[in-house]
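Operator note (shift B, R.M.): manual run for Urease requested after the automated queue skipped it. Running by hand, logging everything below so the morning shift can see what happened. Input copied straight from the record, untouched. If output looks odd, do not overwrite the archive copy; leave it for review.
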Amino acid sequence: MMEEIEIEAIGIEVDSQPIELYKVLKIANAVSGGGEAKYAISEGYVAVNGEIETRKRCKIYDGDLIEFNQEFYLLICDNPVEEKVIAESTNKSPAPKPKKSEEKLQKPEAEDVSQPKSGRSQIKFF
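Run finished. Output pasted below as returned.
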């Protein structure tokens, strides 16, 4: 039988959701910067909803509980979830590529080496 316990959590209010986990730690001032947040997450020092999370860009939503450094943080967001809509691609086939026999490869013409293009004189090594 699981015993229910009460914990005190610090509320972190954000304007939009989802938000990446490392950003939540930065907003909460639990770390000094994004690099430190990413390191702590990748080393397994952060738990989300009671499970260790090692993904730095794990999406965090309203009501998620984050545990770090013996502190608890609760994400609070009144706005609805903003998921980016991926544009549906049309089922058009790509334009056919020309056959190699149709391609005409031209050799570049020999450049005149006596006239430098940049206006500088040439360097002579010998």
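Quick read of the result: The chain has a mean pLDDT of 79. The first helix runs from residue 21 to 27.
Leaving this for review. - R.M.
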